[in-house]
Amino acid sequence: MVGELTDWGMIAVGAGISMAGGCIGTGMAQGAIGAAGLGVVIEKPEKIGLVLFFMVIPETLLIFGFVMSLILLLRIFG
Fold first, then answer.
1. Which pLDDT tens digit goes with each residue over 16-69?
2. Residue 65 parent element (H or E)
3. Using CA atoms, how far apart are residues 72 and 30, in angstroms rounded to an integer?
4. CB 41 within 8 A of CB 47
5. What is the dihedral angle through the alpha carbons of 28, 31, 34, 39, rounded to the nearest 10 degrees?
6. What does DSSP assign to residue 67?
7. End-to-end distance of the chain based on CA atoms, in angstroms?
8. Contact 76, 8 (CB under 8 A)
9. CA dihedral over 39, 41, 47, 50, signed as positive or negative
10. Which of 8, 19, 54, 73 sits a CA distance of 20 to 30 A from 63?
C-alpha cells in the first residue's frame, strides 16, 4: 500500500534526524564560539591556537551524528 511506513522507513527517518541534529547543533555552537573567538584573537593574537581548538570541539557533534546515521543505514543496506 502506498504511504505505509515500514521498519526501513523509520530507520531512514531516524538516520536523517540524527544527521540533521548533528549539523544544526554544530552550526549553533560554532557560531557562538566563532564570534567570541574573533574577539579574543583581536585582543590577543597569540591565543589563535586555543580559539582554533575550541572551534574544532563542536565538530564532534557532527561526527557523532554521521556515525549514528551510518550505523542506522547499514542496518537497511547491510
1. 999 999 899 999 999 999 999 999 999 999 999 999 999 999 998 899 989 999
2. helix 59-77
3. 26
4. yes
5. -120
6. H
7. 25
8. yes
9. positive
10. 8
